[in-house]
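A reminder before we start the practical. When you read a complex entry, don't treat the lines as separate problems. The point of joint prediction is that each chain is placed relative to the others, so the output describes one connected object in space. Small molecules and nucleic acid strands, if listed, are placed in the same frame. In the example below there are four entries. Take a minute to note the order of the lines before looking further.
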Amino acid sequence: MRLAQGVEWGLHACVLLAVIPESAALPAGRLAEYHGVPAAYMAKNLQALSRAGIVESVPGQKGGYRLARPAGEITLLDVVEAIDGTEPSFRCNEIRRRGPAAVAAREYRAVCTIAEAMWRADERWRAELRAQTVGDLVAGLGRAVSPKAVAKTATWFQEVLP
Amino acid sequence: MRLAQGVEWGLHACVLLAVIPESAALPAGRLAEYHGVPAAYMAKNLQALSRAGIVESVPGQKGGYRLARPAGEITLLDVVEAIDGTEPSFRCNEIRRRGPAAVAAREYRAVCTIAEAMWRADERWRAELRAQTVGDLVAGLGRAVSPKAVAKTATWFQEVLP
DNA sequence: GTCCCTATACTCGGATAGCAAGTGTCCGAGTATAGGCGG
DNA sequence: CCGCCTATACTCGGACACTTGCTATCCGAGTATAGGGAC
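Here is the predicted structure of the whole assembly.
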């Protein structure tokens, strides 16, 4: 089970968008440049975030992307589901209804016990992601990233932000 | 993010192996037949379970597979990791170290905040799977599966078990 | 000097190839069994 | 009648094609900007 690569990029992009001035917008190319990833693919993932209403796009020259709502109201689950999809990781194919022990469909009222257990674990995973927001990540940034990196980022901002 | 198909089959297979007499062994072909799935692919997954020490194989004629230890000591996580692998769903590529804001490797002592959050969610998922055993599934089987299906399974057992 | 218009350059958005991993399959090595033979 | 031996048939185990979905890319539609011209 592997989460899509774009989830990592989407999360980093959201964090970066959360620390720029609220009125400014950062184009996909710049976001890709900052993270050292292919611009075209980063753009694709940003489109997914846009469709989900997490970021909003500003068209035209000097346009780009910015957060559609405060970072504290964007959960990690929002970002993950926007890029990776909402369906649970475990998909029940009801194989219990096949083979020699199969009985009439009427008999299968209770949900498959195995699927139930797997979906419960899935829900735990989602609950944890739902409990944390992009704002929390930004708040914890001070102790996690070195002052030098902060300074270089600030310099980069002055270059790309008008 | 999609869990491998084989996980579902492996779990169902373990449940079935848990309800047959302890000394008996069920070949891969029979397990596949019971669940209505391709025999060759079911065999592949059983091999993974065998490598992980969850089931043990009995070679030769009248051979097959049986649980390597009591069902109560086989967690769902054991089965999932045996088939789907043990690496976490989120893979951190350290993209923070790339691009114009990158600094010396020495500065990145703290783990990436985003990866930390994702891995914590992953651990919640694993903890939930670790808390439930194949034995628990078997215990809950009585209320989940209809008496008719139980009867048909018993009949099938009499055909395939010597 | 101010306002309006036009051309530009930049942006996003969706449609299009490439590749890796999961899915599905096959055949060979090994072993417990069943039958036959000899004592 | 009993024990041993051999041939058999069945099992698992690993190596080989194929398909789906993620990865990566490109080009067209749309818009705010910047510059120039008219008043």
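Discuss with your neighbour: The first strand of chain A starts at residue 55 and ends at 58. What might explain this?
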